[in-house]
Amino acid sequence: MKKVGFAILEENYTEINKNDKLERINFDEIKNYQVQVYNGSISLLINLKSGKRISLSSSPTFCNTEYFDKYCQELESKIEKYLSLHQLETIRKKTFFEKTWIYPFLIIITGIVIVFIIILINKGNGFPISLIGAIAPLLALWGGYFSAKNKNQQTESK
Prior knowledge:
Blueprint: E1 5-9, E2 13-18, E3 21-26, E4 30-38, E5 41-48, E6 53-58, H1 66-86, E7 91-92, H2 102-122, H3 132-157
Parallel strand pairs: 4-7
Antiparallel strand pairs: 1-2, 2-3, 4-5, 5-6
Helix pairs in contact: 2-3
Keywords: Membrane, Transmembrane, Transmembrane helix
Transmembrane segments: 101-121, 127-148
């Protein structure tokens, strides 16, 4: 279901208007937040100290995600600046691709796929086309991992 919204971003709060419902979120009310980017889709999840959850997303299938991506980047920057100025602690939750176990998992799965391919080729079966169905999702996972790693390096260099 397509929903329309816009947001205003200030130094210590953001106002989100989604389907004509205005909601103000003060940065000191945020318990944790997470911005996840994958295959062009962007999702923002904000958990407030009150227990309320706010979830927003944008997908290139339905709209241009450029503005939402910029909003999320600026929101993260303003939250971090606000937290450091007021000595508050809000946790930026790691995305799926930033978790510590994802890299070893990808290495192991990639190794298994490579060994499987070598075994099939050595048995004289050649490279089965059906194996592409297993390789494509693996490549997508590697793409997501490197995208998250690249984004973190760009953020750290600022």
